[in-house]
Amino acid sequence: TSYRMVAINLRPLGMDELLQSLNSQYGDILELWFGSNRAVVLCHPKYMVKIHQTSTKSKYIKRFQNINNPDGKEYGIVDSGVFNNNDIHGSWKFNRMVFSNALMRPKLDRDALQWTIELVEEMESYWKRAGIIIDDNDMNKALIEDKEIINLPDWMRRFTYDMIYRIAIGTKGDALNSYTNKLCGLNTYETESNSIIKSTQTYAEGIMYFRLFSKFVRNYFPYIRGIIRSNKNIGERSEDGDDIKNSFVMFGGGLRMCPGRKLAMIELKCLVTMIYRKYDVELVDMNVPLKTKSTFLTSCEELLFRLKLRK
């Protein structure tokens, strides 16, 4: 089954919605054509076993098969760093070794634990200054003010920025403080940290456009309309069931597994432990589905909750 994408309004493109729709129609294996670029989409975890092989001889290790495509090099998503580098036996191998040695050191684990504790305590002080935390007196209010609602992604992006800043440079970042000042009306200008965070988000979202559409299409096709050849569900390509092995792989697999996974788990466990030991976390609306956005990466766009001091 193939789905030829001749043109789409690129602005509201959501890859998760697109692929879920195609999966429901065509099953767990489908073929996509983005202009002249062909892609095979695997929608079931069992097909990912070979892709996650821990061998440099695996034919699936390259993220972008069209390595010589000038569009990828123009955007800087191939032949550099670790995440999308296809120079497996050259710069990728060296960069991977540097990242692994730097991020998997026992000393960094101890330092990261202490830095996370300090950063969470600092974030708590900002919540108190911004009037976000609800105490016993506030619980008697008939209506809770909007300022006491926390959007988790906004705070976590700045928490991550400050943590990376500390690990990479060794000095304290200022993203959380700047964001708190903005909430309190003390900052009326665009801070450097906020500008970097926005630029990082824009860069990640733009990868899909450079990956899937040629330079000619990006520049001269403002709207592209899809032509679906068939709308028939192929039952033999679909599988049911919730208990599926490897259906959620947080840090990837194989040689492309994230080298910072240990550090990320230290931060996550420490953050959750320190928040739940002092506060009751309450979602603003239990019935609202989680708002996510999928392009090259899947991210949470909105998760509203309140913090109440425990008695």
UniProtKB/TrEMBL annotation:
Taxonomy, superkingdom: Eukaryota
Record bears the keyword Oxidoreductase: yes
Task: Cite the InterPro entries for this sequence.
Answer: Cyt_P450 (IPR001128), Cyt_P450_CS (IPR017972), Cyt_P450_sf (IPR036396)
Tell me which cofactor or cofactors this protein depends on: heme
Q: Name one GO molecular function term.
A: monooxygenase activity
Q: Which UniProt keywords apply?
A: Heme, Iron, Metal-binding, Monooxygenase, Oxidoreductase
Please give the Pfam families that the UniProt record associates with this protein. Answer: p450
Signal peptide as annotated in the record: none
Q: Which family does it belong to?
A: Belongs to the cytochrome P450 family.
The protein depicted here goes by the name 8426_t:CDS:1
Species assigned in the record:
Dentiscutata erythropus
